Amino acid sequence: MDILLIGGLWLDGSVWERVASTLESLGHRPVPLTLPGQGDGTAAATLDDQVAAVVDAVDAASGRAMVVGHSVACTLAWLAADRRPERVAKVALVGGVPTSDGRPYADLFEVTDGVMPFPGWGPFQGPDAADLDETARREMAAAAIPVPEAVARGVVRLTDERRFDVPVVVVCPEFTPAQAREWIDGDVPELRRAGRVGFADIDSGHWPMITQPAELARILAAAAEAA
C-alpha cells in the first residue's frame, strides 16, 4: 500500500528517511511529503497550498492510500480524509489529533517577519524531547524550516462527513493510549465522531521518526495491513 508521510511543523520529507526504508522492506510504498513553504524552495505558502499538495499525493497513489500525519500535521492527514474519503484507506495520527473546523491550523508560537520559526527547545522540555540527545537536538534545530504565517494561521475547513467513516489509528508517543482516549472523550470532537479509532503505543518522545524509526515503521505497516 502507498503510505503518505507528512511531518509536523518545521520538518520536510527527509525526516522520514529511516521510517521509509523500513516500510519498503516490509513491502509498502512510502511517500514522504515535503510541503509547500516547508522545504520545497518556495518562500511563502498557505494552508490551502499544503492541503492541495497532500490531496494531489492521495490522487497520485496507486489505489487507496494510508495517510500519516505527525503532530499538527495530523490535521493535514484528516483533511485528506475529508477531501478524498473514497481514496483514503486509513489515517494514522502520530503524536497529535486533528483540529476542528473553523479553528486555526497551528497558531502556536510567535510569528516574526511572516514566518513562525522553531522556538527552541524550551517549550518541549519533558516527555516531548526526553529521548533526544544533544546531537539530535542541534541537528533538528539547525534543519528547522520556518513555517509561513499563512500556513500556521490558516483556518481549517472540514466539509465532508464521510471522513468519519475512514478508519483511524492514533499512535501514542509521549502520551499513553489511555490519555488519548480521555482527550477524545473530552475535547477532540473530530475523533469522538469517528466510527473506527484504534490506538498504538510507542515508547518515544514527540519525534519517533527520529528516535524510534524502525518501531514506528512496524506500527504503520501493521496499520496499513489491517486497512
Structure description:
- This protein has 227 residues and is α/β, with parallel strands linked by helices.
- It has one domain (2-226): Rossmann fold (3-Layer(aba) Sandwich), CATH 3.40.50.1820.
- It is built from nine helices and eight strands.
- It has helices spanning 17-25, 47-60, 74-83, 134-143, 149-152, 177-187, 189-192, 208-211, 213-226, and strands at 2-6, 29-33, 65-70, 88-94, 115-116, 147-148, 168-172, 197-201.
- The strands form two sheets. It has a six-stranded parallel β-sheet with strand order 2-1-3-4-7-8, with helices on both faces. A two-stranded antiparallel ribbon has the order 5-6.
- Strand 1 (2-6), helix 1 and strand 2 (29-33) form a beta-alpha-beta unit.
- The termini are close together.
- It comes from Streptomyces lienomycini.
- InterPro entries: AB_hydrolase_1, AB_hydrolase_fold, Carboxylesterase_BioH.
- Residues 3-218 form the AB hydrolase-1 domain.
- Keywords: Hydrolase.
Low-confidence stretches: none
Helix and strand string, N-terminal first?
Answer: EHEHEHEEHEHEHHEHH
Shape annotation: globular
What's the main sheet like? 6 strands, parallel
Counting helices, strands and paired strands, the structural category is alpha/beta
End-to-end C-alpha gap: 9 Å
Rounded mean pLDDT score: 96
The helical percent reads 25-40%
What is the percentage of strand-forming residues? 15-25%
Query: What would you report as the Rg, rounded to the nearest angstrom?
Result: 16 Å
Q: How many β-strand stretches?
A: 8
In order across it, which strands form the biggest sheet? 2-1-3-4-7-8
Protein name: Alpha/beta fold hydrolase
InterPro entries: AB_hydrolase_1 (IPR000073), AB_hydrolase_fold (IPR029058), Carboxylesterase_BioH (IPR050228)
Keywords: Hydrolase
Domain AB hydrolase-1: 3-218
